[in-house]
Design brief:
By secondary structure, this protein is α+β, with helices and mostly antiparallel strands. It has helices at about 1-15, 15-50, 75-80, 125-130, 195-200, 220-230, 240-285, 290-295, 300-330, 355-380, 385-390; strands at about 55-60, 70, 95-105, 115-120, 135-140, 145-150, 165-170, 175-180, 190-195, 210, 210-215, 235-240, 335-340, 345-350. The two termini are about 25 Å apart.
Protein backbone atom coordinates (compact mmCIF):
# COMPACT_ATOMS: atom_id res chain seq x y z
CA UNK A 1 0.00 0.00 0.00
CA UNK A 2 2.94 2.34 0.72
CA UNK A 3 4.17 2.27 -2.88
CA UNK A 4 0.98 3.66 -4.50
CA UNK A 5 0.88 6.50 -1.96
CA UNK A 6 4.46 7.47 -2.84
CA UNK A 7 3.54 7.08 -6.45
CA UNK A 8 0.58 9.46 -5.98
CA UNK A 9 2.79 12.07 -4.35
CA UNK A 10 5.24 11.87 -7.24
CA UNK A 11 2.34 12.07 -9.68
CA UNK A 12 1.01 15.22 -8.00
CA UNK A 13 4.40 16.87 -8.34
CA UNK A 14 4.73 15.79 -11.98
CA UNK A 15 1.28 17.17 -12.87
CA UNK A 16 1.39 20.19 -10.60
CA UNK A 17 0.20 22.67 -13.23
CA UNK A 18 -3.12 20.94 -13.86
CA UNK A 19 -3.53 20.12 -10.18
CA UNK A 20 -2.93 23.74 -9.17
CA UNK A 21 -5.57 24.82 -11.69
CA UNK A 22 -8.07 22.44 -10.07
CA UNK A 23 -7.07 23.63 -6.59
CA UNK A 24 -7.60 27.28 -7.59
CA UNK A 25 -11.18 26.49 -8.58
CA UNK A 26 -11.80 24.88 -5.19
CA UNK A 27 -10.14 27.81 -3.44
CA UNK A 28 -12.48 30.23 -5.20
CA UNK A 29 -15.52 28.26 -4.03
CA UNK A 30 -14.35 28.29 -0.42
CA UNK A 31 -13.38 31.97 -0.55
CA UNK A 32 -16.80 33.09 -1.83
CA UNK A 33 -18.69 30.84 0.57
CA UNK A 34 -16.64 31.75 3.65
CA UNK A 35 -16.43 35.47 2.85
CA UNK A 36 -20.18 35.82 2.35
CA UNK A 37 -20.87 34.01 5.61
CA UNK A 38 -18.30 36.13 7.44
CA UNK A 39 -19.86 39.25 5.94
CA UNK A 40 -23.33 38.29 7.17
CA UNK A 41 -21.94 37.44 10.59
CA UNK A 42 -20.15 40.80 10.68
CA UNK A 43 -23.45 42.62 10.11
CA UNK A 44 -25.21 40.62 12.81
CA UNK A 45 -22.33 41.13 15.26
CA UNK A 46 -22.17 44.90 14.61
CA UNK A 47 -25.89 45.42 15.11
CA UNK A 48 -26.34 42.96 17.98
CA UNK A 49 -23.40 44.60 19.75
CA UNK A 50 -25.49 47.75 20.19
CA UNK A 51 -28.07 45.88 22.27
CA UNK A 52 -27.65 45.06 25.95
CA UNK A 53 -29.97 42.62 27.76
CA UNK A 54 -30.66 45.07 30.61
CA UNK A 55 -31.89 47.85 28.31
CA UNK A 56 -35.33 48.18 26.76
CA UNK A 57 -36.42 50.28 23.81
CA UNK A 58 -39.86 51.87 23.61
CA UNK A 59 -41.26 52.69 20.14
CA UNK A 60 -44.65 53.23 18.57
CA UNK A 61 -46.30 49.86 17.99
CA UNK A 62 -46.52 50.47 14.23
CA UNK A 63 -42.79 51.15 13.79
CA UNK A 64 -40.34 48.60 12.45
CA UNK A 65 -37.25 50.61 13.40
CA UNK A 66 -36.39 53.72 15.43
CA UNK A 67 -36.41 55.92 12.36
CA UNK A 68 -40.06 54.99 11.70
CA UNK A 69 -41.19 55.78 15.25
CA UNK A 70 -42.70 59.07 16.45
CA UNK A 71 -43.50 59.44 20.14
CA UNK A 72 -44.63 62.48 22.08
CA UNK A 73 -42.07 63.79 24.55
CA UNK A 74 -44.53 63.06 27.38
CA UNK A 75 -43.91 59.31 26.89
CA UNK A 76 -40.59 59.80 28.70
CA UNK A 77 -42.49 60.32 31.97
CA UNK A 78 -44.54 57.16 31.45
CA UNK A 79 -41.41 55.11 30.84
CA UNK A 80 -39.66 56.59 33.87
CA UNK A 81 -42.63 55.61 36.08
CA UNK A 82 -42.85 52.03 34.75
CA UNK A 83 -41.90 49.16 37.09
CA UNK A 84 -38.44 47.62 36.75
CA UNK A 85 -36.63 50.79 35.66
CA UNK A 86 -33.25 51.20 37.33
CA UNK A 87 -32.80 54.23 39.56
CA UNK A 88 -29.74 56.42 40.05
CA UNK A 89 -28.49 57.13 43.61
CA UNK A 90 -30.46 60.40 43.57
CA UNK A 91 -33.66 58.50 42.77
CA UNK A 92 -33.93 59.59 39.12
CA UNK A 93 -34.87 56.97 36.52
CA UNK A 94 -32.19 55.74 34.11
CA UNK A 95 -34.15 56.62 30.98
CA UNK A 96 -33.46 58.85 28.00
CA UNK A 97 -35.32 59.99 24.91
CA UNK A 98 -33.70 60.10 21.47
CA UNK A 99 -34.47 61.38 18.00
CA UNK A 100 -33.11 59.14 15.24
CA UNK A 101 -32.98 60.81 11.82
CA UNK A 102 -30.71 60.91 8.78
CA UNK A 103 -28.39 63.45 7.22
CA UNK A 104 -27.03 63.22 3.68
CA UNK A 105 -23.25 63.51 3.41
CA UNK A 106 -20.84 63.21 0.50
CA UNK A 107 -18.18 60.52 0.57
CA UNK A 108 -14.67 61.83 1.09
CA UNK A 109 -13.30 59.52 -1.60
CA UNK A 110 -16.03 60.24 -4.14
CA UNK A 111 -17.86 63.56 -3.90
CA UNK A 112 -20.56 62.31 -6.29
CA UNK A 113 -21.52 59.57 -3.84
CA UNK A 114 -23.94 60.91 -1.24
CA UNK A 115 -25.08 58.56 1.52
CA UNK A 116 -27.55 58.60 4.38
CA UNK A 117 -25.77 58.75 7.74
CA UNK A 118 -27.82 58.19 10.86
CA UNK A 119 -27.79 61.06 13.36
CA UNK A 120 -28.99 60.46 16.90
CA UNK A 121 -30.21 63.32 19.08
CA UNK A 122 -29.30 62.39 22.65
CA UNK A 123 -29.71 63.84 26.14
CA UNK A 124 -27.00 64.64 28.67
CA UNK A 125 -27.25 61.19 30.33
CA UNK A 126 -26.60 59.22 27.11
CA UNK A 127 -23.16 58.04 28.26
CA UNK A 128 -24.60 57.01 31.62
CA UNK A 129 -27.36 54.82 30.17
CA UNK A 130 -24.90 53.46 27.58
CA UNK A 131 -21.66 53.01 29.57
CA UNK A 132 -20.05 50.97 26.77
CA UNK A 133 -19.81 54.17 24.70
CA UNK A 134 -16.47 55.87 25.40
CA UNK A 135 -15.01 59.09 24.03
CA UNK A 136 -11.65 58.16 22.46
CA UNK A 137 -10.74 61.52 20.90
CA UNK A 138 -11.71 65.05 21.83
CA UNK A 139 -14.62 65.36 24.24
CA UNK A 140 -18.34 64.76 24.52
CA UNK A 141 -20.71 67.24 22.86
CA UNK A 142 -22.14 69.75 25.32
CA UNK A 143 -25.95 69.83 25.73
CA UNK A 144 -27.70 72.81 24.17
CA UNK A 145 -24.95 73.48 21.61
CA UNK A 146 -24.35 72.81 17.92
CA UNK A 147 -21.67 70.25 18.73
CA UNK A 148 -21.54 66.60 17.75
CA UNK A 149 -19.63 63.40 18.37
CA UNK A 150 -19.04 60.87 15.61
CA UNK A 151 -18.60 57.12 15.80
CA UNK A 152 -15.12 55.74 15.15
CA UNK A 153 -16.32 54.00 11.95
CA UNK A 154 -17.24 57.36 10.38
CA UNK A 155 -13.90 59.13 10.84
CA UNK A 156 -12.67 60.53 7.53
CA UNK A 157 -15.20 58.51 5.51
CA UNK A 158 -17.50 61.44 4.76
CA UNK A 159 -16.89 65.14 4.23
CA UNK A 160 -16.87 67.14 7.44
CA UNK A 161 -16.52 64.12 9.71
CA UNK A 162 -13.14 64.82 11.23
CA UNK A 163 -12.31 66.20 14.64
CA UNK A 164 -12.57 70.00 14.44
CA UNK A 165 -14.44 70.03 11.13
CA UNK A 166 -18.14 70.74 10.60
CA UNK A 167 -20.95 69.44 8.43
CA UNK A 168 -24.32 70.82 7.39
CA UNK A 169 -27.30 69.33 9.16
CA UNK A 170 -29.71 71.67 7.37
CA UNK A 171 -29.32 74.73 5.18
CA UNK A 172 -27.25 77.39 6.96
CA UNK A 173 -26.90 75.27 10.09
CA UNK A 174 -23.77 73.29 10.77
CA UNK A 175 -22.63 71.03 13.58
CA UNK A 176 -18.98 70.98 14.62
CA UNK A 177 -17.30 67.68 15.46
CA UNK A 178 -15.76 67.90 18.94
CA UNK A 179 -15.29 64.21 19.75
CA UNK A 180 -14.99 60.66 18.48
CA UNK A 181 -16.47 57.72 20.38
CA UNK A 182 -16.18 53.96 20.27
CA UNK A 183 -18.81 51.42 21.27
CA UNK A 184 -17.17 47.99 21.26
CA UNK A 185 -17.49 47.85 17.47
CA UNK A 186 -21.29 48.13 17.51
CA UNK A 187 -23.62 49.90 15.09
CA UNK A 188 -23.44 53.07 17.21
CA UNK A 189 -19.97 53.64 15.72
CA UNK A 190 -21.68 54.34 12.38
CA UNK A 191 -23.75 57.17 13.89
CA UNK A 192 -23.43 60.87 14.66
CA UNK A 193 -24.52 61.92 18.16
CA UNK A 194 -25.65 65.49 18.85
CA UNK A 195 -27.86 67.40 21.25
CA UNK A 196 -31.48 66.23 21.16
CA UNK A 197 -32.97 69.71 20.76
CA UNK A 198 -30.44 70.69 18.09
CA UNK A 199 -31.42 67.65 16.02
CA UNK A 200 -35.16 68.08 16.56
CA UNK A 201 -35.19 71.77 15.65
CA UNK A 202 -33.18 71.09 12.50
CA UNK A 203 -35.65 68.48 11.24
CA UNK A 204 -38.91 70.02 12.46
CA UNK A 205 -39.26 67.27 15.07
CA UNK A 206 -39.96 69.50 18.07
CA UNK A 207 -42.07 67.91 20.79
CA UNK A 208 -41.43 64.39 19.50
CA UNK A 209 -38.83 61.66 19.96
CA UNK A 210 -38.12 58.49 18.02
CA UNK A 211 -37.60 56.23 21.00
CA UNK A 212 -37.13 56.08 24.74
CA UNK A 213 -34.41 53.83 26.15
CA UNK A 214 -34.66 52.54 29.70
CA UNK A 215 -32.04 50.76 31.76
CA UNK A 216 -33.75 47.96 33.69
CA UNK A 217 -32.93 46.54 37.10
CA UNK A 218 -32.41 43.21 35.35
CA UNK A 219 -33.63 41.46 32.16
CA UNK A 220 -36.22 39.67 34.34
CA UNK A 221 -37.88 43.03 34.95
CA UNK A 222 -38.80 43.41 31.30
CA UNK A 223 -42.16 41.59 31.34
CA UNK A 224 -43.62 43.84 34.04
CA UNK A 225 -42.07 46.90 32.37
CA UNK A 226 -43.55 46.08 28.95
CA UNK A 227 -46.97 45.14 30.36
CA UNK A 228 -47.31 48.48 32.15
CA UNK A 229 -46.56 50.45 28.98
CA UNK A 230 -48.48 48.34 26.48
CA UNK A 231 -51.61 48.00 28.60
CA UNK A 232 -52.94 51.43 27.56
CA UNK A 233 -53.75 50.88 23.88
CA UNK A 234 -54.39 54.59 23.34
CA UNK A 235 -50.69 55.31 23.74
CA UNK A 236 -49.79 52.76 21.06
CA UNK A 237 -46.47 51.83 22.67
CA UNK A 238 -44.33 48.79 22.05
CA UNK A 239 -41.44 47.75 24.30
CA UNK A 240 -38.65 45.42 23.25
CA UNK A 241 -35.33 44.38 24.72
CA UNK A 242 -32.43 45.87 22.77
CA UNK A 243 -30.88 42.51 21.70
CA UNK A 244 -34.20 41.42 20.17
CA UNK A 245 -34.60 44.75 18.38
CA UNK A 246 -31.12 44.73 16.83
CA UNK A 247 -31.46 41.07 15.89
CA UNK A 248 -34.64 41.97 13.99
CA UNK A 249 -33.17 44.92 12.09
CA UNK A 250 -30.09 42.87 11.08
CA UNK A 251 -31.95 39.77 9.91
CA UNK A 252 -32.99 40.82 6.39
CA UNK A 253 -29.66 42.31 5.35
CA UNK A 254 -27.54 39.46 6.71
CA UNK A 255 -29.84 36.85 5.15
CA UNK A 256 -29.72 38.63 1.79
CA UNK A 257 -25.91 38.80 1.77
CA UNK A 258 -25.40 35.22 2.90
CA UNK A 259 -28.02 34.00 0.40
CA UNK A 260 -26.37 35.91 -2.44
CA UNK A 261 -23.00 34.52 -1.42
CA UNK A 262 -24.38 30.98 -1.33
CA UNK A 263 -25.83 31.41 -4.83
CA UNK A 264 -22.51 32.65 -6.22
CA UNK A 265 -20.66 29.87 -4.39
CA UNK A 266 -23.06 27.31 -5.88
CA UNK A 267 -22.39 28.58 -9.41
CA UNK A 268 -18.64 28.61 -8.83
CA UNK A 269 -18.84 25.16 -7.20
CA UNK A 270 -20.47 23.73 -10.33
CA UNK A 271 -17.60 25.09 -12.41
CA UNK A 272 -15.03 23.76 -9.93
CA UNK A 273 -16.76 20.37 -9.90
CA UNK A 274 -16.63 20.22 -13.69
CA UNK A 275 -13.03 21.39 -13.68
CA UNK A 276 -11.99 18.77 -11.15
CA UNK A 277 -13.71 16.06 -13.19
CA UNK A 278 -11.96 17.10 -16.41
CA UNK A 279 -8.59 17.48 -14.65
CA UNK A 280 -8.72 14.07 -12.97
CA UNK A 281 -10.07 12.39 -16.10
CA UNK A 282 -7.15 13.80 -18.12
CA UNK A 283 -4.65 12.80 -15.45
CA UNK A 284 -5.98 9.24 -15.28
CA UNK A 285 -6.05 8.91 -19.08
CA UNK A 286 -2.39 9.94 -19.37
CA UNK A 287 -1.45 7.42 -16.70
CA UNK A 288 -3.40 4.51 -18.13
CA UNK A 289 -0.30 2.43 -18.88
CA UNK A 290 1.14 3.15 -15.43
CA UNK A 291 -2.12 2.05 -13.84
CA UNK A 292 -2.03 -1.13 -15.92
CA UNK A 293 1.45 -1.90 -14.56
CA UNK A 294 0.22 -1.44 -10.99
CA UNK A 295 -2.68 -3.78 -11.65
CA UNK A 296 -0.34 -6.33 -13.20
CA UNK A 297 1.88 -6.16 -10.10
CA UNK A 298 -1.10 -7.33 -8.06
CA UNK A 299 -2.53 -4.16 -6.59
CA UNK A 300 -6.23 -4.63 -5.92
CA UNK A 301 -8.68 -2.17 -7.56
CA UNK A 302 -9.89 -1.10 -4.10
CA UNK A 303 -6.35 -0.19 -3.03
CA UNK A 304 -5.86 1.79 -6.23
CA UNK A 305 -9.22 3.51 -5.72
CA UNK A 306 -8.17 4.62 -2.23
CA UNK A 307 -4.79 5.78 -3.56
CA UNK A 308 -6.25 7.85 -6.38
CA UNK A 309 -8.96 9.22 -4.09
CA UNK A 310 -6.14 10.34 -1.82
CA UNK A 311 -4.74 12.38 -4.74
CA UNK A 312 -8.08 14.02 -5.39
CA UNK A 313 -8.65 14.72 -1.71
CA UNK A 314 -5.17 16.19 -1.28
CA UNK A 315 -5.70 18.62 -4.18
CA UNK A 316 -9.17 19.56 -2.94
CA UNK A 317 -8.03 20.04 0.65
CA UNK A 318 -5.07 22.16 -0.41
CA UNK A 319 -7.30 24.39 -2.55
CA UNK A 320 -9.97 24.61 0.18
CA UNK A 321 -7.39 25.54 2.82
CA UNK A 322 -5.96 28.26 0.59
CA UNK A 323 -9.45 29.65 0.00
CA UNK A 324 -10.16 29.70 3.74
CA UNK A 325 -6.86 31.47 4.41
CA UNK A 326 -7.67 34.15 1.85
CA UNK A 327 -11.17 34.56 3.30
CA UNK A 328 -9.76 35.02 6.81
CA UNK A 329 -7.67 37.96 5.55
CA UNK A 330 -10.87 39.91 4.81
CA UNK A 331 -11.18 40.44 8.57
CA UNK A 332 -8.65 43.26 8.18
CA UNK A 333 -10.86 45.20 5.76
CA UNK A 334 -13.85 47.48 6.36
CA UNK A 335 -17.09 47.12 4.46
CA UNK A 336 -20.01 49.51 4.30
CA UNK A 337 -23.53 49.05 3.04
CA UNK A 338 -26.99 50.44 3.58
CA UNK A 339 -29.18 48.64 6.07
CA UNK A 340 -32.58 48.91 4.39
CA UNK A 341 -34.36 48.18 7.66
CA UNK A 342 -33.05 51.38 9.25
CA UNK A 343 -31.91 53.42 6.23
CA UNK A 344 -28.49 53.65 7.86
CA UNK A 345 -25.14 53.46 6.10
CA UNK A 346 -23.45 50.80 8.21
CA UNK A 347 -19.70 50.22 8.43
CA UNK A 348 -18.49 46.88 9.77
CA UNK A 349 -15.82 44.19 9.54
CA UNK A 350 -15.96 40.68 8.15
CA UNK A 351 -16.36 38.47 11.21
CA UNK A 352 -14.01 35.45 11.15
CA UNK A 353 -15.49 32.36 12.71
CA UNK A 354 -13.90 28.93 13.12
CA UNK A 355 -17.16 27.12 12.36
CA UNK A 356 -17.67 29.12 9.14
CA UNK A 357 -14.10 28.49 7.93
CA UNK A 358 -14.15 24.78 8.80
CA UNK A 359 -17.55 24.30 7.19
CA UNK A 360 -16.38 26.07 4.02
CA UNK A 361 -13.22 23.94 3.87
CA UNK A 362 -15.28 20.76 4.19
CA UNK A 363 -17.69 21.95 1.48
CA UNK A 364 -14.81 22.80 -0.86
CA UNK A 365 -13.07 19.48 -0.22
CA UNK A 366 -16.31 17.63 -0.91
CA UNK A 367 -16.69 19.47 -4.25
CA UNK A 368 -13.19 18.38 -5.27
CA UNK A 369 -13.70 14.77 -4.18
CA UNK A 370 -17.04 14.51 -5.99
CA UNK A 371 -15.48 16.01 -9.10
CA UNK A 372 -12.73 13.38 -9.17
CA UNK A 373 -14.84 10.44 -8.00
CA UNK A 374 -15.97 9.10 -11.40
CA UNK A 375 -12.51 9.28 -13.08
CA UNK A 376 -10.97 7.60 -10.01
CA UNK A 377 -13.49 4.73 -10.12
CA UNK A 378 -12.86 4.23 -13.82
CA UNK A 379 -9.08 4.25 -13.29
CA UNK A 380 -9.24 1.72 -10.46
CA UNK A 381 -11.25 -0.68 -12.64
CA UNK A 382 -8.75 -0.50 -15.52
CA UNK A 383 -8.00 -3.82 -17.22
CA UNK A 384 -4.20 -4.31 -16.92
CA UNK A 385 -3.77 -6.03 -20.29
CA UNK A 386 -5.80 -3.43 -22.19
CA UNK A 387 -4.02 -0.61 -20.37
CA UNK A 388 -0.50 -1.82 -21.17
CA UNK A 389 -1.37 -2.30 -24.83
CA UNK A 390 -2.67 1.29 -25.05
Amino acid sequence: MAFPIRYSMQSLRARRVSMVAAAVGIALVVFVLAASRMLAEGIRSTLRGAGKPNRALVLTNTAYAEGDSRLRQSVLGLVAAAPGVKRAPDGSARVMSEAVLHVWLASRKNENRVVSVQIRGVTRNALVVRPEVRVVQGRAARPGTDEAMIGAALVDRYQGLLLGQSFEIKKNRRLIVVGVFSSEGSAFESEIWADLDAVRSSFGFEGYVSSVTAELESPRSFDAFALALERDKRQGLDAVLEPAYYEKVSENLSSMLSGLGDLIALIVAFGALLGATITMHGAMSRRKREIGVLRALGFHPLRLFVTFLFETSAVALAGASAGALLASLTAFTDFSTNNFATGQELTFHFQPDAAILMGSVLAGTLVGVLGGFVPVVQAARTNPVTAMRA
